[in-house]
Amino acid sequence: MRKLIAVLISICLTVMVFAGCTSKSEQFTAEDFVTLEQLNTDGKYVARGFFESMYTYDENMFDHCFPEGYAEDLDKAAGGDIFEQYKNTMNLGGTFMGSASAGYKECTVENGFDVAAMRSKICFATGFKYGEVGQIQIQKISVQFMNEKDSRINSFYFIVYEKGGSWYMYELFTGNAGF
Predict the structure, then answer these.
(1) Cα angle: 164, vertex 74, 49; to 5 degrees
(2) Strand, coil or helix: what is 110?
(3) Over its length of 179 residues, how does the chain's per-residue pLDDT go in tens digits?
(4) What predicted TM-score, i.e. pTM, was given to this entire model?
């Protein structure tokens, strides 16, 4: 039940996030697509890999954005293929041209975040012990879409966390991260 609630909240937040944060900027340089070898080595890669998987239709990449077995748990909780649900929700139209890391913020008390609450939420959703979750970051990524008229740059924010030296996706961030 808790995973179903987490899935539903994530999908709702996805829709809210995709409704804004758009600009018509010409200054964008897409980075190389994230590889499976890079994916869990840094928060920026797991955030970009999660987004890119939706537009490259790479369900294997999507599954690896989460701890082993977690994507299957999300499928069960959502009553269907969570990858397809995310992919359909995140369909922005236009042609996806690429993504780039645009910075991050450590989730610390000094940066104005309730780290204990955030860590507790991650543990509640994943079943990890509190001490197993290490760093938590809000990653900002920029993505470029093109249609027949123009190019659009969108910014998205993702909460990612480290466990045992590997980085994983938690959810989209809709608050004010101060970027």
Answers:
(1) 55
(2) coil
(3) 555 444 444 544 444 444 344 455 457 899 999 999 999 999 999 999 999 999 999 999 999 999 999 989 888 888 888 999 888 888 777 889 999 999 999 999 999 999 999 999 999 999 999 999 999 999 999 999 988 888 889 899 999 999 999 999 999 887 666 76
(4) 0.82
The three-class DSSP label of residue 169 is strand
The b/e string for 129-143 (b: 16+ C-beta within 10 A; e otherwise) is: eeeebeebbbbbbbb
- The CB-side HSE value for 28 (13 A sphere, CA atoms) comes to 22
> What single-letter amino acid sits at 28?
F
Specify the residue for token string 């780039």.
Answer: 100
Compute, in degrees rounded to 10, the torsion defined by CA atoms 119, 91, 21, 149: 160
Residue 73: C-alpha distances to residues 44, 69, 78, 151, 154 (Å): 24, 6, 9, 37, 30
- CATH for 2-24+33-172 is 3.10.450.50
Domain boundaries, the chain: 2-24+33-172
